[in-house]
Amino acid sequence: MAVEKKAVPMPTQPAAERIKNFNEVPLGYSEEEALKEASRCLQCKNRPCVSGCPVCISIPEFIKAIREHDYQKAIDIIHNTDSLPCVTGRVCPQEDQCQAFCVVGKIGEPISIGRLERFVADWDLNKRRAAESKPVNAAKPASTDKKVAIVGSGPAGLACAAELAKKGHEVTVFEGFHEFGGVLVYGIPEFRLPKSIVASEIELLRQLGVTLVKNVLIGRALTIEDLFKEGFQAIFIATGAGLPKFMDIPGENFSGVYSANEFLTRVNLMKAYLPEDYDTPVKRGKRVAVIGGGNVAMDSARTALRLGAEHVYLIYRRTEKEMPARIEEVEHAKEEGIEFKMLANPLRYLGDEKCIVTAVECVQMELTEEDASGRRGTKPIPGSEFRLEIDEAIVAIGTTPNPIIARTTAGLKFKKHGEIDADESGRTSVPGVFAGGDIVTGAATVVTAMGAGRKAAEAIEEYLASPPGPLSKSGEGE
């Protein structure tokens, strides 16, 4: 039987409408659309798509269940390894992961695995909201009386917590902010990942017996050693990479120059996406420059537009081919009118007598040979300087881990850029202390962090079965 080469497109809000609101842009598949897309799957026996999934979802099996109209079976299959499918179905870069290995992709467009995951996850979410189905894994396993602390409620922490709770361990998640979800709530805009969806996914963890504690910053309110003293037998550090990078160029300290981290955190946690209800203290520039080419840069540019910007520039020092942002996010940004300034790099910001930013001076760049990572380098073109008049700039060139854990945890080894030194299973230099996600790898994807959380849960399970000696006063195990 011939396979349809074109994937079923997902409906989206029209660009002219969505730039005026913070509602989700992709609208999700209807049942008819999901069934049609699922019918394209070849049900390969060697399941190459699964090898590209950081959390190892049984992809052909859940798609087969969709084809059979058995959506409960489909979500149960996904939940076996993915505790946040409503999230991963929306923000995973499937085109670089599972879909990159899809056999159908060799003759046409790969199966839209992420869209099908979102369809069945949303089906389950709607059922739960209508109280028409039992919570996933509602029957709690017998308690092991083992206590595990999770530091950080982002994707790595939540994934680890879910796996350990399923084993019957007493799991407590500590969050420094006033909302749970980590980067899922403070970093990703409402139009890509609604906060209500994150909250609903986290509710499933509570139903598994996970205790969530907010407004407790580990490293300040409590240290890692304090957690051991309170009776936790293992600790998983999943604090992410929330310290913004800057370019260290003149004028970066002017008023109106934000890090993307601060800008998005203000908008998300202080609810600027609900302007009728909240007067969020965040600048609403009319002419905005966003520096960077990743998903965070796209999120910042599109958010600035929704806050009322009349013109948004996206300044990136390489070409669109080298952009790390998802293709879908780049396409959406273009549809919404973001002006891409490619092969350009800021040299300095200009300001008025009150030190408020008024312009950014840039230089045109050209590509050079590939570096050790395989990416093309860049160099400035002499005499190509140009200026853009702006009243706000948002720097989205990456993040590094916050040093608070490093400064307060004796014996814990770190890498040169501040990431925790941990092995593939999350084991660190301190017995009983594990780490995963961006705090180990540097800024990466949500699902990669979740995969790290699942691996760490396996290592913690093994450790709890036969833990080494206790933590000494120096923080080093015996």
In words, what does this structure look like?
It contains 17 helices and 16 strands. It has 478 residues and is α/β, with parallel strands linked by helices. It has 3 domains: 115 residues, Orthogonal Bundle (Fumarate Reductase Iron-sulfur Protein, Chain B, domain 2); 161 residues, 3-Layer(bba) Sandwich (FAD/NAD(P)-binding domain), CATH 3.50.50; 156 residues, FAD/NAD(P)-binding domain (3-Layer(bba) Sandwich), CATH 3.50.50.60. The strands form 4 sheets. The chain has a 5-stranded parallel sheet with strand order 3-2-1-4-16. α4 runs antiparallel to α5 and α12 crosses α13. It is globular. The C terminus is likely disordered.
